[in-house]
Amino acid sequence: MMFPCPMFGIRPPRSPLSAPTVLIALVAGATLVPVVGAAGQADSTGRDSVPVLPTVTVTAERRGLSTFSIPMATTTVGQSAWLGGRGVGLDDALRMIPGVLAQSRSGTGDIRLVIRGFGARGAGDRSNAGTSRGIRVLVDGFPETEPDGRTSFDGVDLAATQRIDVIRSNAGSLWGNAAGGVVSLSTVPDFSKAFGEMEVGRGGFGLERYAGRAGLLLGDSRLAVTVTRTVFGGWRANSGTRRWLINTTMVSPVGPATHLGLFLMAADNSFEIPGPLTGEEVDENPAEANATYLARRERRHNRLGRLGAAIDHRFPHGGVLSSLLYINPKFLQRSERGTFRDFTRVHVGGNVVYANSVDLGGTTRARFLGGLDEAYHDGTILFYSLTPEGNRGGTLRDNKREGANNLGFFLQAELDVSRKVGVSVGARRDAITYYSESFLNPKLSDEKVFARVTPKLGVNYRLSPTHSMYANVGGGVEAPAGNETDPAGTFGQDTVLAINPLLEPIRSTTYEVGTKHLVTFGAESAVSDVSYDVAFYRTNVTNEIVPYRGGRFGGRGLPVSQ
Q1: What is the distance between the alpha carbons of residues 315 and 321, in angstroms, rounded to a whole number?
Q2: Measured at the alpha carbon of residue 243, what is the angle toward residues 384 and 3, in degrees to the nearest 5?
Q3: 243 close to 89: Cβ distance less than 8 angstroms
Q4: Which of 56, 123, 170, 453 is most buried (CB neighbours < 10 A)?
């Protein structure tokens, strides 16, 4: 099986290793059970009957509905999109989705993830490598995205992923810091008997990838474990990576109407950063590293874990109450911008969500959804000098604490006026608080709150069970990154304020119209079904953190998928 060299936005050098890389995959398993009810596909049985409609998961849209009932642009990606390929980063699964730019920056999990223009701020030279902003990323409902909107991908591995749901519309009214949308991954496999399998992959530029998966039935409970190991030398200088990850899920009924899920993830991710090149340097040798990055051995070594629990209960009257809690400790080390930095952090949080529906007579039905999200991220940072070899020096340059808290309340109501017409309206209020405390200079400590109410209005019209048109107007909110709240000054560091008092929340408003259609054919047809979706959107942004046009920008697009 063949796959191309990693995408970097520039062509790799022509050499024996730059030819199409061969992936050798060996799979041995007692039982391999496919995912049941994969979204985006019609039921293969009874093709002359009404097809099974694809749905988005509760973690993506906070409820399980047919995609044709949702006035938003959604895409579901199954395992077939990345099986047999590298599977190193999310770009291997998302690169073909319209409106999504998913691209490896150095051939590893250090990816650039942009949806309709949001996420690009997390890919600059001053931004943290291996991160994105403005896009909410969830794994089994637990946020990889931190309270300030920063997302790292250390805990994401496609070998442990069953499916990915992507919301490409402005999702701020449900998720807060998600103006660019939501990427929701599910790692819970669906199986009916015990299984075990092993996958081995090898390729060019030193790629070695190992993945082991196993599942066990414990009465009515299902326990699944995935362990992965990835080594990649990279085709550019100073671009190697080494990562291992273990992901464990256990789901179990604890009563006739209650289900419990326990989740454990641990990862050790070490990767080097080759840095940007000028056009002239690319023409001369695109495989070289940025000279400054190479001299400082710019790199990241992230060790983290997450323990989480989720529970949902269905009441006799039909309402559903769900909740989750998690703790996510992190120890991060990096050579960055002339310093060696040690981070000791913890990310804790949870949510409570209640959903219910009411029949109003005839074909009229109302649905309600409300809840709150709470996330807190805090810890100390030690800045050391950097030795000529790129290691930690003996001089402590700074000792400070940085924290962020995001408390959000949301409410959404949906009214099915008829079997064809649905209207939804909702709003969310977020309060994002930044904390900064210097232990070397206590006077240089600060706190700032970014607060914003984000509304949403949507209309959905179903021409048939598998064909819909929609329109929506939605708002979004983003908080500045820590590097943006206290950037390096022109004449030296700010010695008066730790957080820029002039910054306000970045606000966006998106106007969107679109259509989705799934066309199914008879059992005798060579093609079972064809689907497409088209959306046109315009986004206006204010308070963007740039010194031009007063921070007012906009974007528009016409993404089409088939």
Answers
A1: 8
A2: 130
A3: no
A4: 170
Q: Which residue has the tokens 């820029």?
A: 500
Residue 40 placed within a domain: no
Number of independent structural domains in the chain: 1
Nearest C-alpha neighbor of 247 from the set 234, 263, 271, 233: 263
Handedness of CA 39, 43, 44, 50 (dihedral sign): negative
Give domain status of residue 15, yes or no.
Answer: no
What is the DSSP annotation of 59-104?
Answer: HHHSS--BGGG-SS-EEEEEGGGTTTS---STHHHHTTSTTEEEEE
Residue 37 lies in a domain: no
8 Å CB contact between 222 and 214: no
* Tokens 């008066």, located at residue: 496
3-state secondary structure labels for all residues of 116-177: CCECHHHHCCCCCCCEEECCEEEECCEECECCCCEEECCCCCHHHCCEEEEECCCCHHHHCC
DSSP assignments along 20-62, one per residue: PEE---EEEES---PPTT-TT---SS-TTSPPPPPB--HHHHS
Indicate which CATH number applies to the domain containing 466: 2.40.170.20
At 129 the pLDDT is 67
In a domain, 42, yes or no: no
Give the Cα separation of 342 and 257 in Å (integer): 46
Euclidean distance between CA atoms 513 and 473, whole angstroms: 9
DSSP code string of 496-520? S-SS-TT---EEEEEEEEEEEEEEE
Supply the DSSP symbol for 175: H
Tokens 């060299």 correspond to 5
- What's the CA gap between 456 and 454, in Å, rounded? 7
CA 110 and chain centroid, separation:
13
Which residue range is the domain that position 330 belongs to? 2-10+22-31+47-561
The secondary structure of residue 105, as a DSSP letter, is: S
Q: How far apart are CA 391 and CA 14, in angstroms?
A: 33
Q: Residue 218: beta bridge partners?
A: 221
Query: How many Å separate Cα 367 from the centre of its chain?
Result: 27
* pTM of the predicted protein model: 0.83
For the beta sheet containing 74-78, the strands, ordered from the edge strand earlier in sequence to the opposite edge, are 74-78, 163-167, 182-186, 136-139, 142-143
CB-based contacts of 554, cutoff 8 Å, min separation 6: 538, 539, 540, 541
How far apart are alpha carbons 376 and 395 in whole angstroms?
Answer: 30
How many C-alpha atoms does 427 have within 13 Å on its Cβ side?
A: 4
Residues contacting residue 17 through CB under 8 Å, at least 6 positions apart? 204, 205, 235
Query: pLDDT tens across 461-507, in order?
Result: 999 988 999 999 998 888 777 666 665 544 445 556 666 666 778 88
Contacts of 493 (CB under 8 A, 6+ apart): none
pLDDT at 21: 34
In this structure, are residues 184 and 165 in contact, taking their beta carbons and an 8 Å threshold?
Answer: yes
Based on the number of CB atoms within 10 Å of its own CB, is 319 exposed (0-12), middle (13-18) or buried (19 or more)? middle
Q: Which two tokens stand for residue 423?
A: 């209207």
pLDDT under 70 in the chain at which residues?
Answer: 1-65, 106-109, 121-130, 482-502, 546-562
> Cβ distance 244 to 209 under 8 Å?
no
